[in-house]
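Key idea: predict the complex, not the pieces.
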Amino acid sequence: MGYDLDRFEQQVDEEFICPICCMVLEDTVEAPCQHVFCSGCINQWLDRESNCPSCRERVVQSDLRPGPRSLRNLLGKLEIKCDFGREGCRRTVKLEHLAAHIRECDYNPRKMVKCTKGCEMELQSCQMSAHSCVKDLRKLVDELRTEQKRMFEEFKTALSKKEAEMSQLQNRVEQMLRITGASQNEATIQYRVLNITSLNGMVLSHGVFVQNFEWKIKAKHFLKNYGNETTNPSRSLGFYLCCHEKLGSRTWRCTADVELRLISQKDGVKDIVERFQRDFTSESFFDSWGIPNFIRWDELMDPARGFIKEDSILLEVRFRMI
Ligand SMILES: [Zn+2]
Ligand SMILES: [Zn+2]
Ligand SMILES: [Zn+2]
Ligand SMILES: [Zn+2]
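Result:
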């Protein structure tokens, strides 16, 4: 719908009139036949018809283009009275400045104003008389809280979905390892122990499966007497191979050739290697075999010895079931 002719002080030229609403063009668009209309008017027309209301040539909505620039420029220079004349605004502005004036017009009930009673909330001026700072701020807090709750629930749902996916994948990996492990009778586990200087107690590597047993490396900061100095020779690295079978399985026994290796991380330094053959049995649920004093702790911690690098050591176990 165009602008009411009453709002213009001068006589408005015929070419600025929309042939549909017979008012001054608002948001001008042009059909391929070069007839121009208000965007609102012609779109409404084309909802029902497929032709130009002036010349009946075929037109559809996607044919419409913005009106000619020269026409729009001339329209923009027309002087128009403010929308809120009836409310008391006496201003007349160029049509091209009307939108900017409306936003700022003091008679516009939807003009955004800042509360001066203390809360500084932005409100439409018509809402200001009913506004109470405390009540409206509380409402805002409640709205934010609801939004936050909703986001939190969404996040929780997404997270638990990902967790379920992860554990499913984890199970598949374990299954695959069991399948490949079942046919195999030897394996090598390599394990980099990070933050070795602060190792307190023991750590376990990832598991590998050989003939349905799960095998892991265990590294332990071994103390003969608790509370000694770090340099005390009674501290050592315990290095073990653990054989771990699932609960509920029947009595079992196996024999394996084992090689424990502390890998050198410095050129010219040899690995420390220990080999032995052991029986592993179901007697203890979580059985481990190894050497409690594989290397003295102070030697292990000495960078010059070549086994510690960037606070990590590298352990390897090769074993073969007999
Ligand atoms: Zn119109
Ligand atoms: Zn036409
Ligand atoms: Zn005004
Ligand atoms: Zn307020």
